[in-house]
């Protein structure tokens, strides 16, 4: 006997690059699925929310313009929880922000039986206690949490990693290029063929192309990679305390750490090109190229992030564009790892990964 | 409110390399999972089956020795269906054989509400009408079918492909090395560094290492790759009639097609080394290497299997060991594909992939 849930209530928080594309893609899927029926009951941005006391369905395709036109003040987290706990059917909270505050509410959402789907890294790469709280709360009244896009966007990494472990395999090592920005910078600065550009020029070019954060130092400090490595390491079984509790190499020259504006930083970066040139030259002496890599070694319980040299034929060396690559070594896979490679950023693929996670919840929801 | 299914009845057919390891892995998982409880109610090999009229649980860890000691004659498919339709809870049929006959029973299983999990390619790469019958039957009374391991063993290929399409992405092209045997042969015959061995020697070595079928012609005829390409092409939206309805290059020299035994074939293969040497030389003239590749082009609705040349820096060229590599090009991923690479054969990883599919069914079952 099947007892299909008639309806599922969805709350979508965040309408930036990923959030707005997600809503478009959700509209497509909702128009084609029969059961459970998707009822969008809440949509919010940083200072505004749209929702109805009677849980009236918000048309997904036009939700953002409706929010713009008719949105009211943002309710508190507990008001949101209160609202969603009476919504028709089970509730799913989709967090398309990068907010620490919302990440800290996941345990509360999960304890109320709401499932959580998010590309937001903060909940999984912050304190170890938040991680524990989240996964302790998961399962209450059937609540689920999926965060495939917190590492490598829609690339199948977190799902397969969890599944490997669940079937009894052991992760021994994970290594990879976890940042699209770093990938782009090093593929152009130290290509496998030709000599590549000057470091500061590549950083400026990447910024112009929109491949960096507004302030490129937010990429160059290595924290984004450290956060992803934290997530992968924890999934592999290591109790990593925080993304700053293991060695992370920053590519911000010490002398420029105190510089206030991103513009000034970019202007002065060329003064330090010689440092990066030296890394490139050292690698080149052995016929190698330098890359910015994250690494987890389960046996020695160590994680680290920083520059490493690779043979030109190595998959990490021959990466293209701004692709990510993640190599997962396990007991069953042996010497040659499971490798997943492709775009690890971008609104369309990230939104698709989030939507894929929502579909997993819809399939499992009772 | 959650209504957990108390029990799920599982029938496991086949106890070869994959089947026996699958049972070991299932025993591990069953000992750690609470709900739904796994009840092994049927286990069978080609000429023998063990099952009890009262659906008594068969101890998973010792099921094969119990089958050996106490198994009776194999029931017919309809007797099996009859038996399983009264089993406690929902039923899952795990087909670890490569049997055409069992594959043809999938529609019947699915129509009775049994879910099907299998690495057997036959059901998905045979006639188009069987494919249609299977997916028409899926969903009856909540039945599901998962066959991740029919392409690339546990590598995440079929799941992600289906999910991409479900979220509204469009597959434009798929290319890859789909056979571990072919991968091993060409990585050694035409390596990116060095000159490689003689073709017939590499085939003999691969057979000695157990990398080929008992008769290597079953690999060299290209049909195994054609079957996997058929599956991928159908998932991508092409109504491929059969694995012989598109161009498939056989590496069996015409003169040896009539040879009766695999031994004689291997003895005489060296007479034809010049043919393969020529393919290698032609590729080498452009600085390339030759590989045996499957390819699907959705726009032109074409599939093909055969020799192609690749730049040495291409991921297909730099593959190692007997790894598979599958590159999926989609509208959202753009110019650079989603690439999955790793072991695409072997009992441990294949069993793990089958078990992963069983876990998906257990999560979704109501």
From TrEMBL, chains A, B:
<feature type="domain" description="Aspartate/homoserine dehydrogenase NAD-binding">
    <location>
        <begin position="14"/>
        <end position="148"/>
    </location>
</feature>
<feature type="binding site">
    <location>
        <position position="121"/>
    </location>
    <ligand>
        <name>NADPH</name>
    </ligand>
</feature>
<comment type="pathway">
    <text>Amino-acid biosynthesis; L-methionine biosynthesis via de novo pathway; L-homoserine from L-aspartate: step 3/3.</text>
</comment>
<dbReference type="GO" id="GO:0009090">
    <property type="term" value="P:homoserine biosynthetic process"/>
</dbReference>
<dbReference type="InterPro" id="IPR005106">
    <property type="entry name" value="Asp/hSer_DH_NAD-bd"/>
</dbReference>
<dbReference type="Pfam" id="PF03447">
    <property type="entry name" value="NAD_binding_3"/>
</dbReference>
<dbReference type="InterPro" id="IPR011147">
    <property type="entry name" value="Bifunc_Aspkin/hSer_DH"/>
</dbReference>
<dbReference type="Pfam" id="PF00742">
    <property type="entry name" value="Homoserine_dh"/>
</dbReference>
<feature type="binding site">
    <location>
        <begin position="14"/>
        <end position="19"/>
    </location>
    <ligand>
        <name>NADP(+)</name>
    </ligand>
</feature>
<keyword id="KW-0791">Threonine biosynthesis</keyword>
<comment type="similarity">
    <text>Belongs to the homoserine dehydrogenase family.</text>
</comment>
<protein>
    <recommendedName>
        <fullName>Homoserine dehydrogenase</fullName>
        <ecNumber>1.1.1.3</ecNumber>
    </recommendedName>
</protein>
<keyword id="KW-0560">Oxidoreductase</keyword>
<feature type="binding site">
    <location>
        <position position="97"/>
    </location>
    <ligand>
        <name>NADPH</name>
    </ligand>
</feature>
<keyword id="KW-0521">NADP</keyword>
<dbReference type="GO" id="GO:0009086">
    <property type="term" value="P:methionine biosynthetic process"/>
</dbReference>
<dbReference type="GO" id="GO:0004412">
    <property type="term" value="F:homoserine dehydrogenase activity"/>
</dbReference>
<dbReference type="InterPro" id="IPR001342">
    <property type="entry name" value="HDH_cat"/>
</dbReference>
<dbReference type="InterPro" id="IPR036291">
    <property type="entry name" value="NAD(P)-bd_dom_sf"/>
</dbReference>
<dbReference type="InterPro" id="IPR019811">
    <property type="entry name" value="HDH_CS"/>
</dbReference>
<dbReference type="InterPro" id="IPR022697">
    <property type="entry name" value="HDH_short"/>
</dbReference>
<dbReference type="GO" id="GO:0009088">
    <property type="term" value="P:threonine biosynthetic process"/>
</dbReference>
<feature type="domain" description="Homoserine dehydrogenase catalytic">
    <location>
        <begin position="156"/>
        <end position="359"/>
    </location>
</feature>
<dbReference type="GO" id="GO:0050661">
    <property type="term" value="F:NADP binding"/>
</dbReference>
<comment type="pathway">
    <text>Amino-acid biosynthesis; L-threonine biosynthesis; L-threonine from L-aspartate: step 3/5.</text>
</comment>
<keyword id="KW-0028">Amino-acid biosynthesis</keyword>
<feature type="active site" description="Proton donor">
    <location>
        <position position="228"/>
    </location>
</feature>
<comment type="function">
    <text>Catalyzes the conversion of L-aspartate-beta-semialdehyde (L-Asa) to L-homoserine (L-Hse), the third step in the biosynthesis of amino acids that derive from aspartate (the aspartate family of amino acids), including methioinine and threonine, the latter of which is a precursor to isoleucine; production of homoserine leads to a branch-point in the pathway as it can either be O-phosphorylated for processing to threonine, or O-acylated for processing to methionine.</text>
</comment>
<keyword id="KW-0486">Methionine biosynthesis</keyword>
<feature type="binding site">
    <location>
        <position position="213"/>
    </location>
    <ligand>
        <name>L-homoserine</name>
    </ligand>
</feature>
């Amino acid at each position: 006997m099947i007892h299909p849930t008639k309806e599922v209530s969805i709350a979508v928080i965040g309408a930036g690059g990923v959030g707005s594309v997600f809503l478009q893609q959700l509209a497509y899927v909702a128009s084609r699925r029969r059961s459970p029926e998707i009822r969008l009951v809440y949509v919010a941005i940083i200072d505004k929310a749209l929702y109805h006391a009677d849980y009236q369905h918000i048309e997904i395709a036009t939700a953002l313009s409706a929010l713009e036109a008719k949105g009211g003040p943002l309710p508190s987290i507990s008001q949101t929880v209160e609202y969603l706990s009476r919504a028709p059917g089970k509730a799913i909270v989709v967090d398309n922000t990068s907010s620490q505050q919302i990440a800290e509410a996941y345990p509360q959402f999960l304890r109320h039986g709401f499932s959580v789907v998010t590309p937001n890294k903060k909940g999984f790469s912050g304190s170890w206690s938040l991680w524990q709280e989240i996964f302790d709360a998961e399962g209450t009244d059937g609540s689920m949490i999926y965060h495939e896009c917190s590492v490598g966007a829609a690339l199948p990494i977190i799902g397969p990693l969890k599944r490997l472990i669940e079937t009894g395999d052991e992760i021994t090592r994970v290594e990879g290029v976890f940042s699209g920005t770093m990938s782009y910078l090093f593929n152009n600065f130290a290509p496998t063929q030709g000599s590549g550009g000057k470091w500061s020029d590549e950083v400026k070019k990447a910024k112009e192309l929109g491949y960096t954060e507004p302030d490129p130092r937010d990429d160059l400090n290595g924290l984004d990679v450290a956060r992803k490595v934290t997530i992968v390491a924890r999934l592999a079984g290591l109790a990593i305390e925080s993304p700053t509790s293991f060695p992370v190499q920053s590519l911000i020259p010490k002398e420029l750490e105190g510089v206030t504006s991103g513009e000034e930083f970019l202007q002065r970066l060329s003064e330090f090109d010689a440092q990066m040139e030296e890394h490139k030259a050292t690698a080149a002496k052995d016929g190698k190229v330098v890359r910015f890599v994250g690494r987890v070694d389960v046996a020695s319980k160590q994680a680290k992030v920083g520059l490493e040299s690779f043979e030109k034929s190595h998959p990490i060396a021959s990466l293209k564009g701004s692709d990510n690559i993640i190599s997962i070594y396990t007991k069953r896979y042996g010497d040659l790892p499971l490798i997943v490679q492709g775009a690890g950023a971008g609104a369309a693929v990230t939104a698709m990964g989030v939507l894929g996670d929502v579909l997993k919840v819809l399939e499992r929801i009772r």
